[in-house]
Structures are given as structure tokens and as C-alpha cells.
Specification:
With 198 residues, the chain is α+β, with helices and mostly antiparallel strands. 38% of the residues lie in helices and 27% in strands. The protein has five helices and seven strands; from the N terminus they run βααββαβαβαββ. A hairpin with a 4-residue loop joins strand 6 and strand 7.
Length: 198
């Protein structure tokens, strides 16, 4: 690991601005978002997700700090949660603004094909590392922490969705995730992935 980790901690609302900064930087070039040098779209996406899913069971933000600054962030909650009412309306509006109509329709298709089942699953909705700290093992360290969190709460697996052509896809495969389902979208294949917890 290239960087010395100061700490891994559960984050609260007081750190929200810094969390959004990390996620904005980490997702700036994500293929789901239109290219934009300012990062405004990735900022909007992070805010939309955090606001919409904050009320989910076991919704938790984790952070890894290095050199006194937040370097890596993860957001998890109980799989199967769907926001309703005003949080849902705001989420849909913000995501439409962030990703555009075509990709918004694709997102709707993905949501309709989400997995089910009786197994208790923890969903990893966001895992992002500030660009200055990428490729230094922080994502792997965060995953190990999340696996422990999930086990402590009685989850059988951790699940996520990721675009197949991103570096994240290979990373998750190396960390023991398996493709549960692949959805062919017009602009990219999206994989629903699962890692059982032994």
C-alpha cells in the first residue's frame, strides 16, 4: 500500500461536503456521466444518491483518511431499499439532470431488472477514491472493512452494479465478486455483481 492510512471510520453529516468532494473527483470520468471537466455532473450524482438512500436500513458512509484528509469513501445500505415520496422525486430529477434522458431511461431499465431473492444482501452503492490516492490499495482496504461490517450485521453477501469497461469491474472480480447478471445497454454493458461472505 502506497499511503499510510490515518483511520477508517463511520462518517456523519458534518463530513458530507468532504464526502461529496471525494465522490465528485472519483466519478468525474465515469462512462455513465457526460464528459464534463468541472465535475458538476458527478457532484449532482453523488448528492442525488446520498440524499435518496440516506433513510435505507443500515445506510452507512465509511471513510478512509490519509495524511489528514478524506481519501476514500464508501456508501452502503440494505439491498432492496427503494426511496419513496419526495426523496424519490428529487433523486429522479437530479439523476435526469446528471446523466441525460437516454442514460436515465437505461437506469430505469437496470432498476427494473435488479436482483431479488431471500438472501440478506448489503448493497455497495458508491466506492470512490480521490484521484491523488487511486491505485494505492485504499479500495481494497475499504472492501475488507465493508465485508466485516456486513458479516457483523448478518448479511450473506455484498452486491453492487458496475460498468463492465471500467477499471472497477476488474478490481471487483479480483476481490471475489462474481457477475450475477449482465445487462446490455446501448452505451455500455452493466454488471450486477455479488460477493458471498463466508
Amino acid at each position: 500500500m502506497g499511503e499510510q492510512i490515518d483511520r477508517i471510520e463511520t462518517l456523519d453529516n458534518e463530513q458530507r461536503s468532504e464526502v461529496i468532494d471525494v465522490l465528485t473527483d472519483a466519478f468525474r470520468d465515469h462512462p455513465m456521466l457526460p464528459p464534463e471537466p468541472t465535475g458538476r455532473k458527478s457532484h449532482l450524482m453523488a448528492v442525488a444518491i446520498l440524499d435518496a438512500f440516506a433513510g435505507a436500513p443500515d445506510a452507512t458512509l465509511f471513510g478512509i483518511s490519509c495524511k489528514g484528509e478524506l481519501a476514500c469513501v464508501a456508501f452502503v445500505f440494505a439491498d432492496g431499499y427503494e426511496p419513496g415520496g419526495l426523496p424519490l422525486v428529487w433523486f429522479l430529477w437530479r439523476m435526469l439532470r446528471a446523466i441525460g434522458l437516454r442514460k436515465f431511461r437505461m437506469m430505469g431499465r437496470v432498476m427494473s431488472e435488479k436482483r431479488g431473492g431471500n438472501e440478506r444482501r448489503l448493497e455497495l452503492m458508491l466506492l470512490g477514491t480521490r484521484s491523488d490516492y487511486q491505485s494505492q490499495g485504499l479500495g481494497r482496504t475499504m472492501l475488507r472493512h465493508l465485508f466485516g461490517f456486513a458479516r457483523e450485521r448478518g448479511y450473506a453477501s455484498v452486491v453492487l452494479e458496475t460498468a463492465k469497461q471500467t477499471p472497477a469491474f476488474g478490481f471487483y472480480l479480483r476481490e471475489g465478486f462474481e457477475v450475477e447478471k449482465e445487462i446490455s445497454l446501448p452505451t455500455m454493458p452493466l454488471c450486477m455483481m455479488r460477493r458471498p461472505l463466508d
